[in-house]
Amino acid sequence: MSDSTTEESVLFGDVRVFDGRSDRLSESTDVLVTGKTITSIGEQPTGGTHRRIEGGGRVLMPGLIDAHAHLAFSTVPLQIALTADFGYLAIRSAEAAGQMLLRGFTSARDAGGPVFGLKRAIDEGHVPGPRIWPSGAFISQTSGHGDFRLPYETPRGVCGHISHAEQLGAVVIADGVDEVLRGTREQLMHGASQIKMMAGGGVASVYDPIDATQYTEAELHAGVQAAENWGTYVMVHAYTDRAVGQALRAGVRCIEHGQLLTEATVAAIAEHQAWWSLQPFLDDEDSPRITDPRGVAKLRQVVDGTDRAYTLARKYGIDIAWGTDTLFDPHLATRQGAQLAKMTRWFTPAEVLRMATSGNARLLAMSGERNPYPGPLGVIEPGALADLLLVEGNPLENLELVSTPDTSFPVIMKDGVVHKNTLG
After folding, report:
1. CATH fold group of domain 9-62+376-421
2. Sequence-separated (6 or more) residues with CB below 8 Å from residue 237
3. pLDDT for 288-309, tens place per residue?
């Protein structure tokens, strides 16, 4: 049920607040939103008109943030993503974005894919969706995790043009310092808020073994320099000690995945004060559907390392980001909240919610001047951006509520606009 009517102000009355930082809820209070920001908490508005949403003692919390999303590819099978018409993929991306917002995810750091147009359409109000921090096309070496070309498409240019994935804006195949600089700068030109580079082998890719180290330190450093010259940072896909160690030496600020790391490398992440963006990959109903035996074997290694990774991240006090990394699976995309709820395997509900609100917001803010949505995010406080969820129940006691957004989130607000209200 959608209600996107712009209101001068909205008052959430009689709500208990999870502010994105605390371990407990506030006493019953009122929260006033004026325009796009939270303007007061616990104060009765004076003058003007406002729309009142009666909380009835429900919990008001910040909108959720997915720090590793792929909005262009989350709901389309791989073969469609590699071959479909650009317009079709754009429509599917917009559909996925609207569904994500209605799951309570009001922000997403997109970790690679053609979403610049989607972000613009959302920001201009043409379609509903979360705030997007776009990486643009991920930067991959030949035979790297982003190289999905078919064998007949090599050597490069043999067919007279670059590959479909490159034309689509999904990937830049870049070898050598000069090509990395060009590819990185092109994404920054299009509006990337951070850069995604492939520094090691992956599960879904065909050519690279999971233990492969990708790029040289000089190539990674070139991407880092180009990003830093633009006031932002590089995030890398990497699983192994060698790949992560090289990335840290090159100045990378955020490690994606890393389930195969040993304790020495985890200590190095802490020493470099880098972020570790982990996903709860387990052998459960949310495990990616992979049929290639090589991919199955690679996935098993990743799954086997997940418990150890979270344990070591906690031990060394590393800043942990939470994200889903859902790709090519429309059903798995609907499990976004469920994948957050399963984090209670390693953390308390309060720690999980902080990670998916104020914690992930700190990571998003690392984009500096490239941050497309400046202002406090992931918190409920005066002056913060008004991304809010009204919750039926107490998520600090029952985090499973986030896995049933249809019934658990009667009201969803993003940027001061009510996108769902089932309370009337």
Report:
1. Urease, subunit C; domain 1 (2.30.40)
2. 111, 138, 145, 196, 197, 198, 199, 200, 202, 256, 257
3. 888 888 889 999 999 999 999 9
